[in-house]
Write a structure and sequence with these properties.
Layout (H helix, E strand, L loop, with lengths): L2 H14 L12 E7 L4 E9 L5 E9 L2 H14 L4 H17 L10 H8 L8 H18 L6 E2 L4
Parallel strand pairs: 1-4
Antiparallel strand pairs: 1-2, 2-3
Helix pairs in contact: 1-2, 2-5, 3-5
Length: 155
Amino acid sequence: MDLKELYQEIILDHGKNPRNKKICNGFNKDAKGHNPLCGDKVHIYLKTDQNKKVEDISFEGEGCAISIASASILTEIIKGKEHTLAKKILEDFLKMLKDGSKFQLNSLEENEKISMMSLSGVKKFPMRVKCASLAWHTFIHALEEKKTKVNTEKA
């Protein structure tokens, strides 16, 4: 199996069997996001502790396979991470989507990098970048307790 096939398998798996698609118990932060061009919607739920560690993360939403897969991958990678590291992961992910950059973080496990890289092909399709980044922009709004709804036309 080549890398492109592996990436497609990861996206299809997360799209059909999303992880953490529910409302997490005891969430204390949340945010909603919307991509008006394609109708993708996501609601991110976070449970953070006093040290700003993401104890739990989940999502609800509807949308295309890329949007759902990206939200699912986000929840798997961010769960258990500290606020500062989570923001660095977000920055690396968004840079990858925009210009194909490699991940700068050495603290990610190889399977986490592969999962995130599975979405790298969307950079060739600007409309799909918004699908892949919606959950990530919504996550940072939840983490930073911003009260505005994420809109990909303004992100």
